[in-house]
Amino acid sequence: MSVVTNNREFWERFEDEQSDLQNALKTKNYDLINEIVQGLNEEVNAISGCSFFVEDVSEDFEMTFDPGPNKTSQYLAQRLKKMAPDNVKALWRINASLQPLSQKAIEASVQIKDQVYSLVDFYVFYTVDSSSQTIQTKVYCPGYSLIENDEYTKEMSMYLLELAIGQTYYEAYISLVEPLTQPEADNPNFCSLVDFYTKIQDIVEKDHWKEYASPLDIYSIYEPNQDFAHDALRKDMKIIFTTHPLLVEETLGEKNDVLLDLKAKDGDYGYIYYVNPEELELEITESVLIENFKEITEKMCILRDYGIRISLDDFGTGYSSLSYLKGLPIDTLKVDKSFIDTSITDKNTRIITESIIFMAKRLGYETVAEGVETQEQFEYLDEIGCDCIQGYLLGKPMSKEDIEQLLSHI
Predict the structure, then answer these.
(1) Which of 11, 76, 95, 312 has the smallest set of CB atoms within 10 Å of its CB?
(2) The dihedral formed by the CA atoms of 222, 226, 229 and 233, expressed in degrees to the nearest 10
(3) Beta strands in 98-173, from DSSP E residues, in sequence order
């Protein structure tokens, strides 16, 4: 099974139960709502680690995949949202992270001794750090003085704060969460927990802080420097950095390895973890493909399912059986430079080149000619319908500085 397959099966089940769920929400049939949602939640949790719930506080249909702070689950929640069928997207608002003041927050309550507290009974005292664009918070509840376990009150404060302001704001802007047993008399910056999301919005807008659309926007990925890490780390290992001081994560051990975590949820290709797959095109050479055709082709199919484009490089230099092309999961076929070099002077090369271009286009592939160096070659390739060219005619390899200079003029 793969992430894509798991998601498709979930949405097929959701479509089967969608009508009953919508009717139950309209009629406030909470027994049926709970029964349907419980089954869907179990499936979502099994395939992604997320919690699933629906809102019934408005006339609009709304569902949420709540991934918590787990990076793999956050990615998979986004994939679930993206793969929702069009008829579901047309009827439902779909959230891929916990939203501020969701129904989960409205229904949240905490019992301390004999007293029950809801979000309106909690207050947050805060200090703004404009230099780091973060906020330090201390959460006060009258009942905290009755609890001796400081870790428990801290975890409770973090949980309720996240419910109040949502996952994205919590990870983007909160740098400290501490519980208070008494109000901070010398801190004029405080408000009810239910009003804190609006306070943060005002700060972000007024001071022009960086804004984030989702928790995934907060992370950047850096590969270890292979000069010093070559013998110590796997080649596919990443170190993940977050702007959230409480959530720094390194993939240096099995317990915190997001690649293993992704694989455990049926996602095999961790190196595309936080990248938009549609913006990637993976090149594979014909020689590598032929070495292990079946295994490589299976992996190419999985990558295509993620939305990654695949191009076959150096076509014509390997075993070059045309029959295998019909079943290849590729988007682009790149004609090797050896054909282009003699395409003008050799009749047989022209026949082969034109056949490759014609065949590739009929199969639905984009065509790229490699190693184009003269205007005559360019005009010939344009005449026979080649889609793209690359080579010294357009430009030679450039240094990082030259590329930056070139981009600055675009």
Answers:
(1) 11
(2) 70
(3) 109-112, 115-118, 123-129, 134-140
Q: What is the DSSP string of 260-298?
A: HHHHHTT---GGGTTS-GGG-EEEEEHHHHHHTHHHHHH
H-state helical runs in 194-257 = 196-206, 226-229
**Can you tell me the distance from the alpha carbon of 94 to that of 74, in angstroms, rounded to the nearest whole number?**
14
Q: Is 288 exposed, middle or buried (0-12, 13-18, 19+ CB in 10 A)?
A: middle
pLDDT tens for each residue of 369-401: 999 999 999 999 999 999 999 988 888 877 777
As given in the structure block, the two tokens for residue 102 are 């969701």
The total number of residues shown for the chain amounts to: 410
What DSSP designation does 304 have?
A: H
- CA–CA separation, 346 vs 273, rounded Å? 47
Cα dist from 184 to 59, 162, 180, whole Å: 40, 21, 8
Distance in angstroms (rounded) separating the CA atoms of residues 326 and 197: 55
| Angstrom distance (rounded) from CA 155 to CA 179 | 9
Q: How confident is the model over 270-287, as pLDDT tens digits?
A: 333 334 556 677 888 777
Q: What's the half-sphere exposure (Cβ side, CA atoms, 13 Å) at 25? A: 20
Whole-angstrom Cα distance, residue 43 to residue 266?
14
